[in-house]
UniProtKB/TrEMBL annotation:
<dbReference type="InterPro" id="IPR035906">
    <property type="entry name" value="MetI-like_sf"/>
</dbReference>
<keyword id="KW-0813">Transport</keyword>
<dbReference type="Pfam" id="PF00528">
    <property type="entry name" value="BPD_transp_1"/>
</dbReference>
<feature type="transmembrane region" description="Helical">
    <location>
        <begin position="181"/>
        <end position="203"/>
    </location>
</feature>
<feature type="transmembrane region" description="Helical">
    <location>
        <begin position="139"/>
        <end position="160"/>
    </location>
</feature>
<feature type="transmembrane region" description="Helical">
    <location>
        <begin position="251"/>
        <end position="271"/>
    </location>
</feature>
<feature type="transmembrane region" description="Helical">
    <location>
        <begin position="69"/>
        <end position="96"/>
    </location>
</feature>
<feature type="transmembrane region" description="Helical">
    <location>
        <begin position="12"/>
        <end position="34"/>
    </location>
</feature>
<comment type="similarity">
    <text>Belongs to the binding-protein-dependent transport system permease family.</text>
</comment>
<protein>
    <submittedName>
        <fullName>Carbohydrate ABC transporter permease</fullName>
    </submittedName>
</protein>
<keyword id="KW-1133">Transmembrane helix</keyword>
<dbReference type="InterPro" id="IPR000515">
    <property type="entry name" value="MetI-like"/>
</dbReference>
<keyword id="KW-0472">Membrane</keyword>
<keyword id="KW-0812">Transmembrane</keyword>
<feature type="transmembrane region" description="Helical">
    <location>
        <begin position="108"/>
        <end position="127"/>
    </location>
</feature>
<feature type="domain" description="ABC transmembrane type-1">
    <location>
        <begin position="73"/>
        <end position="271"/>
    </location>
</feature>
<keyword id="KW-1003">Cell membrane</keyword>
Length: 286
């Protein structure tokens, strides 16, 4: 370690700079959280609030007073759970199959997957596909067209490339077929990759917005992101109590951001054990 005066000065400057950057980055998140729990009268009487004198749940009570909000959270929850489960099954199964060198036509399939990454058909062909499949106003239109990602398949394939073929051979000797070996041997070894890509898929499905605008016309089937955007644009909730005075629009926006963000943040601690290793899948060859 270099303990010269210049080196110590450089490290101290780095610490100060990174601390300032961290504070600038975290302050908007902190401010959104604080304002969402601030009392309405205090919010209206103060220019800026760094810490509320009176905590209040009025914004959340107003947002959650409508069954529409609860229904939208349920739709987003279904998308996150069902979509993630289906996507992981498809992605992991395809990636593992492509990682086995004995697969005939393996290179051709990989080239086709790579083609889907480089060339996207665009919005209109995707909309025509969903319409011709009869999925307009169907919640599965937000899952099936994006069931898998070519980029995730290639990354996960890199993880499975590190699993030796000798495990398959040992499983075959013990009487396991391909499916049994996949579920009982390969999947338990793949928890880091499953956790990492499961989190990626869950975030994508929970944040479904643009595809829902295209394919879902019935507001009863809107996910939380679309409903909150529409509600904040038009302000009042259709099913809210008309006698209840709504909080200021800015407070509603803050509470809406918290509602849309916290569920995904709560998932991360349960996946943290495997996430750090999983994000490195395919980057190291053994």
């Amino acid at each position: 370690m270099d303990n010269s005066t210049g080196s110590r000065t450089f490290h101290a400057a780095n610490i100060v700079f990174l601390t300032v950057v961290a504070l600038i980055t975290l302050f908007p998140i902190y401010y959104v959280f604080i304002v969402s729990f601030t009392d309405i009268g205090e919010y209206l009487s103060r220019t800026i609030i760094l810490f509320p004198e009176t905590w209040s749940f009025d914004s959340y009570e107003y947002l959650l007073s409508s069954p529409t909000i609860i229904r939208a959270i349920g739709v987003s929850g279904f998308l996150a759970v069902a979509g993630t489960a289906c996507s992981l099954i498809i992605t992991a199964s395809l990636a593992y199959t492509l990682s086995r060198k004995k697969l005939m036509g393996r290179r051709v399939i990989l080239m086709l997957i790579l083609f889907t990454i480089l060339f996207n058909p665009g919005i209109i062909p995707n909309y025509m596909l969903v319409r011709n499949l009869g999925l307009i106003d169907n919640i599965w239109s937000l899952i099936l067209p994006v069931l898998s990602s070519g980029w995730y398949v290639i990354l996960m394939k890199g993880f499975f490339d590190n699993i030796p073929d000798s495990l398959d051979e040992a499983a075959a000797i013990d009487g396991c077929n391909e499916i049994t070996a996949w579920f009982r041997i390969v999947l338990p070894l793949s928890l880091p990759a499953i956790a990492a890509f499961g989190l990626f898929y869950a975030v994508e499905f929970w944040n479904s917005y643009f595809t829902a605008l295209l394919y879902i016309n019935d507001y009863h089937k809107w996910p939380i992101q679309v409903l909150l955007q529409n509600m904040l644009a038009e302000n009042p909730l259709a099913e809210a109590d008309p006698l209840h005075q709504p909080p200021p629009a800015e407070m509603l926006k803050m509470a809406a951001v918290v509602i849309a963000t916290v569920p995904i943040l709560c998932i991360y601690p349960f996946l943290q054990k495997h996430f750090a290793q999983g994000v490195m899948v395919g980057s190291i060859k053994g």
